[in-house]
Amino acid sequence: MSTSVLQPRATKRAANGGAPARRAIARWAWRLFRRQWRQQVLILTLLVLAIAATTVGLGLVTQTVAARSRATLGTANTRVTIARPGGEVDSDIAAARHAFGTVDVIESQNVAIPGSVSTIELRAQDPNGPYGHVMLRLDAGRYPSGAKEVAVTSRVARIFNQHIGSTWRVNGRSLHVVGLVENPADLQDSFALVAANQVTSPSSLSLLINADQQTLQSFHPPSANGVDIERRSASETLSAEATVLGMTTIGLLFVGLLAAGGFAVLAGRRQRALGMLGSLGATDRHVRLVMLANGAVVGVVGAVLGAALGLACWLAFSPATEHLLEHRFDRFDLPWSTIGLALILAVLTSVGAAWWPAQASARVSIVTAISGRPPRPQPARRFATLAGALLVAGPGLLVLSDQRAPALIVTGIIATALGVLLLAPLTIQALAGVADRSPIGVRLALRDLARYQARSGAALAAITLAIGIAATIAISAAVSEAKTAAVTGGNLPNNEIVVYLSADDGGPVPQLTPAQVQAAQRRVSAAAALVGTHDILELDQAFNPASPETADPISGVTGKSGAAMARGHPVGGGFEFSLSAPLYVATPALLSHYGIRPDQVDPTADILSSRSDLAGQTLLIEGAKGPRGGIPPKIQHLPLPRYASDPNTLITSYAMHRFDLHSAPVAWLIHAPERLTPAQVDAASKLASRDGLTIETRPTQQSLTELRNDATAVGILVALGVLAMTVGLIRSESAGDLRTLTATGASRTTRRTLTGATAGALAMLGGLLGTAGAYLALIAWYHRNLHPFTHVPVLDILALVLVLPLVAVIAGWLLAGREPTATARHPLE
Questions:
Q1: 30 vs 28: CA distance, rounded Å
Q2: Are 697 and 683 within 8 A, CB to CB?
Q3: Separation CA 681–CA 697 (nearest Å)
Q4: 151 with 200: CB under 8 angstroms?
């Protein structure tokens, strides 16, 4: 009998522990997350807020872009508007249905507003039309169905003192008001709705259709009077998608920057534990896995909670936002696929944010990690080189995109944003370079920023991004307001009212007695009081006393024809003149109002103007004999207002004496301290109509001033929040140094200076970098027309660049100064 010893088969194991080691590291990371959730609640909160803001932002952008086209096109892709169709309305509609099939018809007629040069629209439209049903919404009562029924918007009801059940006399018809309606895609759309085919003599005919370009070009309506075509732009949809993607990318970039700074602090606090883990045999991959697993957990939890919070905020605050953006929201019409993509990217962003400090922790030697010393910051020139390349490529791609190529737009936005953000370490190092000549508190603060560059750089990048977004919105709003002013004709600033004695500035010059002039002035003062001002400027007009009296066809006011600039056209054996500008008298009060001194006026000039289109025009004086009715005047250009209905063309006292002209008041200019609201305009119109006057204001339009100011305020609040968190993290990391300073006799003032200087330096750098980056991107975006950039939102920019650092310094100073606890005892890790 023999025996033998069997050796057990050797098990081949991975040198680094394999999957069991990775599972053990992941379980340890999960336990760390559960035990140290208080230290990570800051990162989680930032991630939740960022995802919530991204969700709300996506909803706002999607709804706003959709409403812009729905307001005039409904669900159609084309709107064909025919001016003055006359008796060919039925023929035009029949031709359109033959060419396009389904057609939604809208007939319009202008209705004058008493006491105003503006009009509202009397609209005949089917509320259940195939394309235009989304352009109507019933707020109260019912839709009109008979020939003598009408529904009005709230503003029309306010202007004409109408309500459900009242009778409205309009354009020679008596209509019974049966409902209140609105255009949900444009709440500023003021109109009165009658049943289909109930506009007797439409001034325009609109046809909503779905048609391709070839079929549209072959369509020729029988009336063929001033056909205007509006199509739903495919580039607008692409631009909207690019905007959504850009906002998602920027939001997640903001998340990543905030999370990277938080994870860097967390890695610093775990530095000794990670060093001990390495001393027990863990590899660099295991050290990285600890941070990456933690980032994945935070990302999943933050994404879910952020989406829930964002959806709740969207549902709660949509009603208030509707009035700000002037259109209704479909609460659940959200880009769900994009939101889902944002949640996935949020998790990846959190993991990516943890990867940066994970790499840095893995590179730290075991001895350095156990000692607790911060790692040496990377040279800033590496970031500067890459930043320079991105700042050249990003704006270049935006220029090449020409606002149409989504891929180039998104890439350009990302490259520009990253280029600005990568300048953060360089600016921190540059600021630390001037610390030698600073007081001790400021010197220590600036050097701490450079010493803890990993977290201060990420924090500065986050502040820069927040300020950059706010500055982009503020500058874009100012550019849009300037472009809107040019498109709408720019008749008046949005805080001015002109009160006329006639129907408008082209009416006759009334011959009033002094008592009548005083009575008119009292009525104008009452109108000024309605808008909260006493700033009233009388506007006089020159006239020839020998000219015949004429009557204004609208107001019925009689008077003399005023002197005006006119352009002559040879007709037969004579000339026909077309008026181009009324002439107000250059009174001392008027010149002083616009800052023009008497010595600036040429004593031999006939006309003072800011207009550049008066060359070749003549001075027309009704009733004048000889050449005085059409001689070329001597024109001097001065900085008068450029708005069309402002007094931008004046006749001098020299010309008045030269041509024996008299003057009389024809209008008053009221300058309000703030933008006029629709309610103020309506109240002034009612008062003017009652007193036989007429007013003119800027056409009611959505003002972007509130949006601009709100964006600035939100940007400042977000930056201050990031500053508070960042300064707290940096000060906690340097708690040992602060204890040493306190033990050596550092006063409360020194501690306050440390915190205030840290907050102020980050705020100043973030404001400058964010504003500069916003201007760089927007100049590349609007490179074809840079003129609107002359309208700088000065107050908003000053708030971001100057007020933010000042508030940061004051807040840091007031909230710091308390002596740290346990000065002589070092806390155990």
A1: 5
A2: no
A3: 7
A4: no
- Of 360, 361, 356, 422, give the one whose Cα is nearest residue 389: 422
Read off the amino acid at residue 125: Q
Q: Please state, in angstroms and rounded to a whole number, the distance separating the CA atoms of residues 141 and 149.
A: 12
Mean pLDDT (10-residue bins), the chain, 829 residues: 51 56 73 68 75 79 75 85 80 86 89 76 90 90 90 89 89 89 87 88 86 79 75 62 62 68 67 69 72 81 87 82 75 78 80 75 66 59 76 86 75 81 80 73 78 72 80 77 58 85 70 85 88 89 82 65 75 61 87 89 90 80 55 85 85 88 89 83 80 77 62 78 71 64 71 80 87 86 73 81 87 68 46
Residue 296: strand, helix, or coil = helix
3-state secondary structure of 536: strand
Calpha distance 714→267 (Å, rounded): 30
Nearest residue to 669 (alpha-carbon basis) of 506, 484, 533: 533
Among 594, 564, 561, CA closest to 579: 564
Q: What is the Rg, in whole angstroms, of the alpha carbon atoms belonging to the chain?
A: 35
Residues 517-528 as b or e (16 or more Cβ within 10 Å = b): eeebeebbeebb
Helix (H) or strand (E) holding 60: helix 37-73
Pairing mode of beta strands 558-560, 549-551: antiparallel
DSSP state letter for 628: G
- Name the phi and psi angles at 650, rounded to 5: -120, 150
How far, in Å, CA of 558 to CA of 549, rounded?
Answer: 7
Among candidate residues 149, 232, 193, 49, the one with its CA nearest the CA of residue 718: 49
- Give the Cα separation of 220 and 216 in Å (integer): 9
Tokens of 1: 């009998």
Q: Is 156 left (phi over 0), alpha (psi -120 to 50) or beta?
A: alpha
Could you tell me how far CA 372 lies from the centroid of its own chain? 47
**Exposed/middle/buried for 436, CB within 10 Å: 0-12, 13-18, 19+?**
exposed
pLDDT, residue 164, reads 92
What pLDDT sits at residue 707? 65
Find out whether 527 and 687 touch, Cβ atoms under 8 Å.
Answer: yes
Helices (H) and strands (E) in the chain, counts: 24, 24
Q: Where are the beta strands (DSSP E) in 302-396?
A: none
Joined together, the tokens standing for residue 176 give: 């019974």
DSSP assignment letter at 198: -
Task: Give the span between the Cα atoms of 139 and 274, in whole angstroms.
Answer: 64
C-alpha distances in Å from residue 625, one per residue of 449, 630, 658: 82, 10, 13
β-pairing verdict for 694-696 and 496-500: antiparallel
**Within 10 Å of residue 108's Cβ, how many Cβ atoms?**
18
DSSP string across 398-467: HHHHTTT-HHHHHHHHHHHHHHHHTHHHHHHHHHHHTGGGS-HHHHHHHHHHHHTHHHHHHHHHHHHHHH
Residue of 623, 619, 651 lying closest to 545 (CA atoms): 623
b/e per residue 174-192 (b: at least 16 CB within 10 A): ebebbbbbbbbbbbbbbbb
Q: In angstroms, rounded to a whole number, what is the distance separating the alpha carbons of residues 188 and 254?
A: 35
Neighbours of 680 (CB within 10 A): 18
Q: In this structure, what DSSP letter does residue 114 have?
A: T
Q: Where are the alpha helices (DSSP H) in 702-744?
A: 705-733, 735-743
SS3 state of residue 491: coil
List the one residue out of 164, 148, 169, 155 whose CA is nearest residue 119.
155
- Of 155, 147, 203, 202, the C-alpha closest to 178 is 147
Residue 702: count other Cβ atoms within 10 Å of its Cβ: 16
Query: Rounded to whole angstroms, what are the CA distances from 130 to 65, 92, 97, 208, 779?
Result: 21, 18, 13, 9, 42
- Residues 475, 460 contacting (CB under 8 angstroms): no
